[in-house]
Amino acid sequence: MRNLTQKSTALRLARFGTLLALMGALTACQTMQATMETPEKEKKAEVIPPAVEPIPVRSARASMIAPIVETRETITATGYAVVSIQNHKTPAQKRLLAIRASKLDAYRSLTEQVYGQHLDATTTVADMTVMSDTFRTRVEGVIYGAVLVSITPAGDDTYETTLSLDARVVDDLRALYLGQLASNIR
């Protein structure tokens, strides 16, 4: 499981690095202006470089990335499911069920991030010894507007699904939830 998270993080870093390299290449481009000559002198068209000072690449990258980061504030969640334990006879159907289960697991993870978890814990102690220790968690909520980022095989027998949710949608969901709680108290 930890190896899968590392692979996912490495893939995200590679995508981000590619984006930075592309932005760096685009900021290094300059346009040249050709002056129009009279018809007699068309053969001697003169190219005049723009009278703009070059922008340092590092600051140009930062100024281009900042708006992207600001507009793309999202939370992400990843879900996993094992193919071999799915309850069906054909391998294709098991694979489809694992994909579906991994997507539902990702939705559960998003719901935990938006609404939190309800946790019940019970510990029984007798003669200064822990006799039993039980934990139960429950997650409940509504998720809308989630974007499917990827569904990929993770190893030979597991599928990984990643979903993202815009921060503005998270704020809306939490406001609706708090409004519902307030109306239930009355």
Keywords:
single chain; 186 residues; alpha+beta; 2 domains; 3-stranded antiparallel sheet; two-stranded antiparallel sheet; 4 helices; 46% helix
Tell me what you see in this structure:
The chain has 186 residues and is an alpha+beta fold. It folds into two domains: 72 residues, no CATH class; 113 residues, no CATH class. Helices cover 46% and strands 26% of the residues. The strands form three sheets. Strands 3-7-6 form a three-stranded antiparallel beta sheet. Strands 1-2 form a two-stranded antiparallel ribbon. A hairpin with a 4-residue loop joins strand 6 and strand 7. Helix 1 crosses helix 2. The longest helix has 27 residues. The radius of gyration is 27 Å and the shape is flat. The two termini are 45 Å apart.
What's this, in brief?
Helices cover 46% and strands 26% of the residues. With 186 residues, it is an alpha+beta fold. It folds into two domains: 72 residues, no CATH class; 113 residues, no CATH class.
